Amino acid sequence: MLNRTDVRRECHKITFSRGEELQQKGAVRRLAWEKKKEDGFDVVQMDATVSGSGENLYEVKVKVDEDYREILEYECECPAFYSYSGLCKHCVAVLLDYLEKREETRKRGKTLADYGIPTGSSVSGSRGTASSSGSLPAARPDSRSTSFGFDRLLERYVQRDRVNLMQRQILGSVRLEPSFSFYGESLKVTFRIGNRRLYVLKNLGDFVNAVAGSEWASYGKELAFYHHPEAFAPQYRPLVNFLTFTLLKGSSYMGNYLSSVYKKELVVSAELADGFLESVRTIPLREEGTEREWRMEDGEPERLLEIASEGSGALVRLKKLPMLTGRQGIYFFDAGRIFRVDRERGEEIREFLLYMERYGKSGLYIAASELPAFVQDMLPVLSDHFQVKMKNFDPRRWLPPQAEFSLYLDAPQRDLITCSLFSVYGEERYNLFEDTTISGQRDTWRETEFSGQAASFFTAFDPQRHQMVLSGGGNLRLPA
Fold first, then answer.
1. Backbone angles phi, psi at 437, to 5 degrees
2. pLDDT over 80 (residue 235)
3. Mind listing the pLDDT tens digit for each residue in 318-341?
4. What is the pLDDT of residues 217-231, one digit of tens each?
5. Adjacent-strand bridge partners of 330
6. pLDDT in tens, 405-441
7. pTM for the predicted model, two decimal places
8. How much is the pLDDT for 402?
9. Mind listing the pLDDT tens digit for each residue in 151-168?
10. How do residues 21-80 score in pLDDT, each as one tens digit?
11. Under 8 Å CB-to-CB from 315, ≥6 apart: which residues?
């Protein structure tokens, strides 16, 4: 039956508080209601007069469906009703006054029959029952009681069977269809629920709480059911399980907290990306505002990386694809397909992609001084992930020349040996133990490898002379 929570959902919390104050002050001067049939459904039509600001009196009309806890129509003469969406405070006051008066007149104790569902005693063929005329032998008396807490666990199983039997028409048919939009480096996801007709899921917190407690919830005239997992179509259960586990964080019930934090939308960022996208692998994932359906695939999308000669340098262009980074994978969205790349492999190019997204939308220009390092160190990695197309650009031109190395040892004093190491390119030479920015066409890979090997034979570094030092009677053993 309709309750205060249903009223609160249809308005802003401030509006609800003001309507509550009006009702408590007795501002509802007149309230009458009648139950009637409308399109085969039972509805309640309310007519009321409510005191407003000053001496204003406003006529209010509200129509509700008690069985499905749905506020169907409402109207008020006040200016706020025509200026803002949702219930105004006068409509709230009328609904709260109706709920209070209804409670005074109706019988206490709501049963399943209030929803038109037969109770357990009237269901035939349920498990665990036997005829009184049966010939089962009488059980021997036992003074022991059932282990603590097991009765509650057993009740959940019994209730599950009863509920599934009572809602056989809907069992295994409810769909939970997600739709998404790109939201920065995240996704913003909304949901629709139903079997024949789909309803917008207005509050994820309420939905998760209903699933966790196998509770009865209504979304409209054509959809009201106990939220047992078996009610959902099998392909949608992974998504239901993901939402329940993720939002509850392992707790069995979080009540009003979820309802207030998780409303209509779920933001899927790095923490939720892997679990969410895996849960929708077997169902359509629609993009908001389009009819396009997206499906999951493993592997990398085919992307063209174009490198063209421009001036004395090169211009790099890359086809833009939306990207979502998870804890275990990186996801690329391309023409209705969501490609999943393992995080370890995708991490090689993730920073490059983020840079291109932020700064290289019209192309990335690389000056001639940076091209040797780009061709030697970065292009091989990019070629492993993209289809590289060269346009009047020959990378061989920018490969560094073969380096030669000169190593100088000196013993300026007893028990002290120093080492200087240089890379030589024709007439140019560079001290490899000097912390300077690498410039020009140099074989940085071989320089790094050779300097590392040489430094491993020494015990200290002299930053003033840019030399490696072996001291304290250590033994210097150079490779043959």
1. -70, 130
2. yes
3. 988 899 999 999 999 998 999 999
4. 888 777 888 888 889
5. 325, 341
6. 999 999 988 889 999 999 998 888 899 988 666 555 6
7. 0.54
8. 81
9. 666 665 655 555 554 456
10. 999 999 999 999 999 887 777 889 999 999 988 788 999 999 998 887 888 888 999 988
11. 307, 308, 309, 363, 364, 365, 366
Residues 48 and 31: their CA atoms lie apart, in Å, by: 4
Report residue 9 as tokens: 């959902």
- Whether 48 and 32 have beta carbons less than 8 Å apart is answered as yes
The residue type found at 337 is: R
- Give residue-wise pLDDT tens across range 301-319: 989 999 999 999 999 999 8
Euclidean distance between CA atoms 38 and 16, whole angstroms: 28
